[in-house]
Design brief:
The chain is of the alpha/beta class. The two termini are 24 Å apart.
């Protein structure tokens, strides 16, 4: 029997449900695919609710539980309606700033929690929280958020994830997670109750390099006991890390462009780029492969394995997955 999937929705507002039969191991063998690696954020899971809500929750706890501060101070701060809408862009700025100054979550220079403290502190101050207040609560806020984001209270899986990885796992294909993430990723997978389906996990913090570096894909291959990059598919939602990295390494990929996301990873932005613009300075065949391998959710992975892969022979006689 071949693999199959079904998607149904009881109403236009409800999330679709997915079910997959186990994909025969023979299908993977026929296509020379022995393993599949997944990115985490934006591919397997997303932040539950909004980042701002989680951050403000931690700030409220830290202020209200501090005997020198208390609920009255929090209520006064909460009355400032400018903080919440500014918090996400301020977080984005702080994250990029410290990732540039202290790459890979401060690898070799500090703990990842210390690195996150810098990001969290700058995010709140730039959003309008008084600097002297952050000096008092910064450590507590960081501890709360660092623990919180290691649990399922901060994350939710996309609806097709569990049925898909169960089907893939039972087919004999090795599954793994390869992500630009800190050391909490394994805790998160365990909290989400999906860690048992993955044979290998590779994070940038552990290696000191990030995707698209070939080193991180080589480590994934080593852990999966794979000797050729075209025997593994990488699945992710960011062009630079999850498409260009595998392409340059000779590894097949599937690009996830979920609803509301730009092809360049932006979200509902007029700056979203077309595939042709993103690949303007690369081989013409790369844009074709990118277009063919772009899907809206992970159910397409099962479809690819069910239907078999189509290979395009290029002038160089190299093969690319399309």
């Amino acid at each position: 029997p071949s693999s199959s999937l079904s998607s149904s929705s009881s109403s236009s507002s409800s999330s679709p449900s997915y079910s997959f039969r186990a994909i025969p191991a023979a299908a993977a063998v026929t296509n020379d695919i022995k393993a599949i690696s997944f990115d985490f954020t934006g591919t397997l899971a997303k932040v539950k609710g909004s980042t701002e809500e989680h951050y403000l929750m931690a700030l409220e706890k830290s202020i209200c539980n501090n005997p020198r501060l208390g609920p009255a101070l929090w209520k006064g701060l909460e009355a400032n309606k400018n903080i919440k809408p500014k918090l996400l862009p301020c977080f984005s700025n702080a994250y990029k700033k410290h990732m540039k100054q202290l790459p890979v979550f401060g690898y070799g220079q500090m703990t990842s929690e210390e690195w996150w403290r810098l990001v969290i502190n700058d995010s709140f101050i730039e959003a309008g929280v008084p600097e002297d207040l952050m000096m008092v609560v910064s450590t507590d806020v960081t501890e709360i958020l660092y623990r919180h984001f290691a649990t399922k209270d901060a994350w939710e899986l996309y609806p097709e994830v569990v049925p898909l990885i169960k089907a893939l796992n039972s087919s004999g294909i090795k599954l793994g997670v390869v992500s630009n993430f800190d050391g909490r990723l394994r805790e998160i997978l365990k909290s989400l109750e999906i860690d048992q389906y993955f044979e290998f996990v590779v994070t940038s913090r552990e290696l000191g390099v990030e995707k698209p570096s070939k080193k991180i894909f080589e480590e994934a291959m080593r852990k999966a006991d794979i000797y050729s990059p075209d025997a593994m598919i990488h699945v992710g939602d960011t062009v630079k890390t999850d498409v260009l990295g595998p392409l340059d390494f000779g590894m097949p990929f599937v690009f996830i462009q979920r609803h509301g996301g730009g092809i360049d990873g932006s979200r509902d932005s007029p700056q979203q780029k077309t595939i042709e613009e993103l690949f303007a300075d690369r081989d013409g065949g790369d844009a074709l492969v990118m277009r063919a391998n772009t899907v809206s959710n992970l159910s397409a992975v099962a479809t690819f394995l069910e239907d078999g892969y189509r290979w395009q022979a290029e002038e160089s006689n190299s093969r690319r997955l399309i």
